[in-house]
Write a structure and sequence with these properties.
- This protein has 487 residues and is mainly beta.
- It has two domains: 121 residues, Immunoglobulin-like (Sandwich), CATH 2.60.40.1930; 341 residues, YVTN repeat-like/Quinoprotein amine dehydrogenase (Methylamine Dehydrogenase, Chain H, 7 Propeller).
- Helices cover 2% and strands 47% of the residues.
- The protein contains one helix and 40 strands.
- The chain has a five-stranded antiparallel beta sheet, with no helix packed on it. Strands 33, 36, 38, 39 and 40 form a five-stranded antiparallel beta sheet that branches.
- Strand 20 and strand 21 form a beta hairpin.
- The chain is globular, with a radius of gyration of 25 Å.
- The chain starts with 9 loop residues before the first helix and ends with a strand.
- 48% of the residues are buried.
């Protein structure tokens, strides 16, 4: 039984064959998405720690090969895993490298070299030059250990934070990327730097200076000039309201705001719900706490990143949380989430997402969960990148109008339905994954100059009571999914 009764000519039949027949369509079962609560974020695939020879996950980082293929470098308690996520529904584990057991770990990339390091394992150096061929070579191991590892690709220096060589900031010279060497060290007041983002300024009053923005644990937020590795010095600092443990953060692209997570303010009862702190760093000598915002959950926030106006947060027991800061950077809008730990949202850091990483050109997000490993996610709906599909009521024996907004002007839009539910289905000619199982083409229309398209179809009388899943697609993009019951 088909919910949309219509007559197809030979052109439509050829279109259906081209898009939805044979090798053009690859259907994949759902990835257990139903056990997780989510809003505007969908699960492509999950890889458990055990599949990567580990027992739990920690940090992760991205690598984009010269060919454009996308990889995640995933930290596990016992291993570092290199996973290709170019096709996010079909990730491929390329290499797994063991190390001594460490709950903490950090990974970064410099050119074709990757670094993995932890509190309890030495710095490992990997050559990724042949990763597209399935080859990852460990080329060195250095006698350094650290809690966090920052890297400034522009300057060619990495920075150990709270390391075996000092609790402050220790600079590593990467001029020989296979053999990093210590170039300098600073211990700010309090003697501890927990994490850092290090950037080089090219214009404005700070042009030519390399600046480290440092969450410094129990003490404060520090801004450090690291330009001269033999004379690194504190530029400014801030003790913000409710400082419990100044943990980690990331700059906005204009370098005006630093978005910060405090790891203990929820657990210690200062913040009743997950708090993200906004610091104005436009004057690096006088950082100011200008705002805070919340997801409304009670979990502990851990690592966050800013990309293209969105803030991607790993919030332990409430999983991945996404905020839109494009319109109001001081009061970002909570636009999506994927909860990898549905058991609860309790504060603490024993369960859930350590890091949610957004730095893939495709827009894929990868979250590394302490208990459940890698979650490869589609956040395009939360970011407003998908077409919007609507439908007039589906009533048996009457016409319904399917309408799309946000399509490519004058582009061809395909309207598709399923009677069996949701699953990732690849449509190669369009270069997209549908969120429909066993999809059927209802018809196509050409979008007008405003990116709007519509299709009218008659709903059969005997479709009453049936659930129908609807989606639209064009080259390189899909719409949101509608789930409707025929009246």
């Amino acid at each position: 039984m088909k919910p949309f009764a219509h007559r197809r000519g030979r052109d439509a039949a050829r279109l259906t064959l081209a898009l939805f027949a044979g090798a053009a369509l690859l259907a994949h079962p759902g990835a257990a998405r139903g056990q997780y609560s989510a809003h505007n974020v969908r699960l492509y695939r999950q890889i458990t720690p055990q599949q990567m020879n580990g027992t739990g996950g920690n940090d992760c980082w991205s690598y984009i090969s010269p060919s454009g293929r996308e990889y995640v470098i995933a930290g596990l308690y016992e291993t570092t895993a290199f996973v290709e996520v170019t096709d996010p529904v079909n990730p491929v584990i390329v290499h797994i490298e063991p190390h001594s057991s460490s709950i903490t770990g950090d990974m970064k990339v410099y050119g074709q070299y990757a670094y993995s390091i932890g509190d309890y394992y030495n710095l490992q150096v990997f050559d990724l030059g042949r990763i597209d061929e399935g080859v990852v070579a460990k080329v060195n191991e250095r006698p350094y250990r650290t809690h966090n590892f920052a890297l400034n690709e522009e300057s060619g220096y990495a920075y150990m934070c709270a390391s075996s060589h000092g609790s402050g900031l220790v600079a590593l010279d990467l001029s020989d990327p296979v053999t990093p060497t210590i170039a300098g060290h600073i211990n700010p007041t309090g003697g501890h730097v927990h994490d850092a983002q290090v950037v080089t300024y090219h214009d404005g009053p700070y042009a030519g200076r390399e600046i480290a923005f440092c969450p410094s644990g129990y003490w404060r937020f520090d801004v450090i000039d690291v330009t001269d590795k033999n004379n690194m010095f504190l530029v400014g600092s801030l003790v913000y309201d409710g400082l419990n443990y100044c943990h980690q953060g990331w700059l906005s692209a204009d370098r005006r705001y630093f978005y910060l997570d405090d790891e203990l303010d929820e657990l210690n009862g200062y913040a009743p719900t997950t708090r993200t702190i906004v610091i104005d760093v436009s004057d690096i000598a006088n950082p100011r706490h200008v705002s805070s915002f919340t997801s409304g959950r009670t979990s502990t926030d851990h690592n966050l990143f800013w990309k293209d106006g969105f803030i991607y947060e790993g919030n332990y027991s409430s999983g991945f949380q996404l905020f839109d800061a494009r319109t109001d950077p001081l009061n970002p809008t909570h636009v999506g989430w994927f909860d990898t730990y549905p058991e609860n949202d309790a504060p603490g850091y024993g369960h859930g997402v350590w890091t949610a990483l957004p730095f893939f050109p495709s827009g894929t997000v990868v979250a590394n969960d302490r208990d459940r490993g890698l979650f490869i996610l589609d956040a395009s709906e939360a970011r407003g990148e998908r077409m919007f599909l609507s439908a007039t009521p589906l009533i048996g024996g009457q016409s319904t109008t399917l309408s799309v907004q946000g399509a490519t002007p004058s582009g061809r839009v395909y309207f598709i339905y399923s009677l069996t539910g949701e699953a990732w289905t690849r449509v190669n000619p369009l270069g997209v994954y549908l969120n429909l199982a066993s999809p059927v083409l209802a018809g196509a229309a050409t979008a007008n100059g405003n990116g709007e398209a519509s299709l009218v179809r008659t709903v059969p009388v005997n479709a009453r009571g049936r659930t129908v899943w609807l989606q639209a697609a064009e080259a390189g993009n899909t719409s949101t999914v509608l789930e409707e019951v025929v009246q």
